[in-house]
Amino acid sequence: MRLFCLKKSIFFYIFVAIPLLFALPASVTYSQDIRNRDILILHSFHKGHVWNDSITEGIESILADHKIPSTNLRIHYEYMDIERTNDPGHTQNLYDFFKKKYIFSHFDLIIATDDPAFNFLLKYQQQLFLTTPVVFCGVNYFDEFEMFGHELFTGVVENIDILKTVNVALRLHPKTKNVLLIVDKSESSIATIKTFVQNFKHFKNVSMFKFITDLTIEEIQLKLSRLSGDTIVLYVNFTSDRSGKTFSMKESLDLIIKYCNVPIYSFWDCYLGHGIVGGMMASGSAHGKKAAEIALRILKGKYVQNIPVVKKSPNSYMFDYRQLQRFQVARDMLPENSEITNIPFSFYSAYKKLVWGVVTSIAGLALIIFVLLVNTFKRKRVEKSLKRFSNQLNILHKIDRAILEGNFSEKAARDVLRYVRNLYASFRASLFIFDFQKQTATVLAVDADKKSKLTQGAVFPIGLFNADALREGKPIWIDDLKSRKKSSVVEDLLRENGISGYVSIPLVSNEELIGSLNLSGCTALSLHSERIDIIQDVAVSLAVAIRNTQLLNEVMRHEKELERLSAKVFETQESTCRKISFELHDEIGQSLTGAIINLSAIEKVLPPDCNHKAKNLLKDTQDIIDRLSEQAHDLSLNLWPPMLRDFGLVPTLRWYLDRIREKVDIQTYFDVSNMEERPTEEIETAIYRFVQEATNNVLKHARASKLNVSLTRSQDGMISIIVEDDGDGFYMDEFVGNEKINDRLGLLSMRERIAFMGGKLNVWSHPGRGTRISADIPC
Fold first, then answer.
1. Across all residues in the chain, what is the average pLDDT?
2. How far apart are CA 477 and CA 522, in angstroms?
3. By three-state DSSP, how is residue 136 classified?
């Protein structure tokens, strides 16, 4: 059998699947990453059948959340419509139809629901879907013997629990004397009756059970309308009556419920919510979920033969809340873990935790509000103090930031004065800086309600400010200027502006008085201990900021003076080099040339029989003077090449590199870009000295085989000069920390020259990868 299946599969792929693949349009594309898996769901009944739809819902809920990587499940549905078709040849017609429809189709798995679909596949699976595994569910009358020879079948058996349903109905309705079973003549109903009869042995009074079988729907309705209150109904199935009328499950149940005034129980959850009380019910959704779970196991690679048939039906107690209320059945009488549907919405029941959470939150908020109310008075009492300290922190932060930046401006000083003036409600606040060498007090900043003669930059004699008292570090104040017999010029200005008193706070930095902070128009009584501490803190920060700014300005002044002196040194150095170069070339060079001429003349006048030793000494003297002349010439060029002045930077650098290549075994390269216009003589000299110093470092320390020099002028007017080699190199981190770095590389000279021209010097190096020194100079 397995060999036959394998041969048939090979035949299918060679003669059917492959030709179809090549016949597809060119526009069709297939994903290499996502594999499509096709599943056929074969239903016994029709779409809209309550039981079938419930199974479908369960299957789809599981397959929708499948976790098979890189797999796309495609579901196909077929409905056999057995319940509404009485044609004896209907099954054969379905076989013929499916055989033509699916001749070129392949399914990875089939799910069969209920007995008709299960029996159909047992009979025709090998003819229609030879190698496709089958998972069944909702099968009532399962016989293990029927599975013989069908190794690709597994599934879930449906067993209705008649005993538990009847027992729970009798327990919930203890006055019951009659149990009426509604069935029809279908195979399903007959099988249920047989099962029911087999359970009679569990009941003491079997005579209480009665069956309604061969009646019309009208006769059933009449019978049901006459039932007494000591009767319960078990609804099994009724899809056709004696007259041949057919009904759907929902239609028949609606017609029965309409005329029945006693409790109705059943065995399937698809009837729940349509008028029945409940029972131990088989769930179509549960069967569908279980079948889908088995299907996913197979699709993941589990062999069908290794998955046993689930013979225990997933049944559970289910009840309708509205019917329980109708027949006055208490919920505590229900079996444990019973499921109840149609429970009316109760906000408290649905959101019990939320309600208690809200109540707890409200109680907590009420407690918090009470605590806040109790502390409101305290909060208001300290609010002004907090605001005052906040402003103090802000102004101190502004002063500290000015200290860190080294830039305590006049605007920052006015902001501080405005804060202090508002704090003490004074008319004017001023800041004086003392110069004890010049014996002057200068107004640094003023903040006032209106203009006065006391303006920024005004200078007064320091003797007007009682500096000796301020040196002690304590504030001084005058409450009433009018009562003073002697007054200073500053006090006269205050009186002219209608100010009767003032306070002066000393500014002390490193135990040195540098100025004073003055408040005009406030009395000594307003300066209680808390506020005097604030203003003294501000005064300390002000003193540090002002002193820091003074020191920074002094440093900057010295730096500018140092730059000026450095420029003078470079200028003197170049002038000296140029003068020495000219002296070597014009004076010493010419004198040496004259000496060589005289020695040549002496050699000519010597007699032929002159001592041989004298001639050798004369020749040695000529060689020494030649070497001395060449050294003087080279030294003159190194000190100052005249061609730099006459021909410019580019020819001079090219000549300089050619001389190096002639004297030293090293390859030199010179690249020039956009240097048609000559820069100033100062820039040319700086660049030439930069290249000269960098090249000397390469020749002394680098042991390089290549030396590259590039000179470029950019569009924004910057001249970039780069000197790089392929020598030994060094670690920048280690070398920067070496105190002799400037001596070894001559970086100090190069850096100062480039900085004097307004440029920037950069050095990069790494062991084994050479060194690169670059400079950018603005034109």
1. 79
2. 9
3. strand
Tell me how far apart the alpha carbons of residues 54 and 47 are, in angstroms, rounded to a whole number: 11
The encoded tokens of residue 357 equal 């959470």
Task: Map residue 541 onto helix, strand or coil.
Answer: helix
Q: Compute CA distances 329 → 173, 181, 427, whole Å.
A: 8, 21, 90
Mean pLDDT for 571-583 is 63
How many C-beta atoms surround the C-beta of residue 481 within 10 A? 16
733-744 residue pLDDT tens: 766 555 555 455
pLDDT, tens digit (0-9, with 9 covering 90-100), for 122-134:
999 889 998 899 9
pLDDT-derived band at 538 (thresholds 50, 70, 90) equals confident
For the chain, how long is the longest CA-to-CA vector?
174
Inter-CA distances, 71 with 36, 62, 552, Å: 6, 15, 74
Which contiguous run of DSSP H or E holds residue 83? none
Of 78, 92, 94, 87, which is closest to residue 43 (Cα–Cα)? 78
Model pLDDT, residue 3 = 38
The whole-angstrom separation of Cα 489 and Cα 208 is: 128
Q: State whether the Cα torsion 193-195-201-203 is positive or negative.
A: negative
Instruction: Tell which residue, 497, 512, 388, 390, has the closest CA to residue 449.
Output: 497
Sole residue written with tokens 């305290």: 378
Q: How many CB atoms are located within 10 Å of the residue 28 CB?
A: 7
Within 10 Å of residue 61's Cβ, how many Cβ atoms?
13
| Band of residue 522 on the pLDDT scale cut at 50, 70, 90 | low
Tell me, what amino acid is at 232? I
Task: Say which residues have a Cβ less than 8 Å from residue 586's Cβ, sequence separation at least 6.
Answer: none
For residue 419, is pLDDT > 80?
A: no
Alpha carbon dihedral 282, 284, 285, 289, in 10-degree steps, equals: 90
Residue with tokens 């009426």: 180
Q: Which helix (H) or strand (E) holds 477?
A: strand 476-478
Nearest-angstrom CA–CA distance, 210 and 221:
16
Those residues with Cβ within 8 angstroms of residue 490's Cβ, 6 or more apart along the chain or in another chain: 454, 460, 464, 465
Plot region of 77 (φ>0 → left; ψ -120 to 50 → alpha; else → beta): beta
pLDDT band at 253 (very low <50, low <70, confident <90, very high): confident
Cα–Cα distance for residue pair 515/507, rounded to 1 Å: 5
> How far is Cα 169 from Cα 149, in angstroms, rounded to an integer?
42
